Amino acid sequence: MKNLELRIAFCLLPFAFCLFSGCQPLQKTPNAPFPPEMVGTWETWFGPEQKWAITFDRDGAITGMHHYVFGPMTAEEGGVYKDGPDPGTYMVAVLGPLQTEYVPLTNRLKATVTIDSYTMQFVEGALKGRVIDKLEGPVTEDGTTWNIEWRSYGWLEGADEPPIDFIDANPELLVFHKVEVSQ
């Protein structure tokens, strides 16, 4: 009989803990209104030819972007294909989930851009892999700049796993500038 009582107690213990400790889910973009000052296109440049841009719709959806490696893409098209400079060479990137999360309590916006797979076919050989980019920062205060922490995780077929802990601990700081307001 004591064994049954112990089992019941262990089953009820987690429930009681959540009940008394205030177990609450995080509020995410679908439940919180997207900040209107973030609607539009935001971009930053890594050099004269390498741009990273992202477009947020009124509901927080990422409708398009200019990926810093793969170039312009829209969520509607689902990726990009480009012929290379030599015969038989090309680049293809397939978009995965594009997610946003706005946390009103901290006034922070998180965006995740997933490239489910990519192939860069060269004359001799190819690179294949996938990439997840995470951008996070406080909502713009002045309506023109968005300061973020950027973490980019890249998996290259046949190579070692990315150093997740190192990337998490050492985000790159970027400043995006608003270039277009979506209607």
What does this structure look like?
The N and C termini lie far apart (68 Å). The chain has two helices and ten strands, in the order H-E-E-E-E-E-E-E-E-E-H-E. The N terminus is likely disordered. Strand 6 and strand 7 form a beta hairpin. The chain has a ten-stranded antiparallel beta sheet. It has one domain. It is mainly β and 183 residues long.
Overall tally of structural domains: 1
Shape assignment: globular
E-strand count: 10
Low-confidence stretches: 1-29
Query: Total helix count?
Result: 2
In short:
The chain has helices at 2-21, 164-169, and strands at residues 40-45, 51-56, 62-67, 71-74, 79-83, 90-103, 108-121, 126-138, 145-156, 172-180. By secondary structure, the chain is mainly beta.
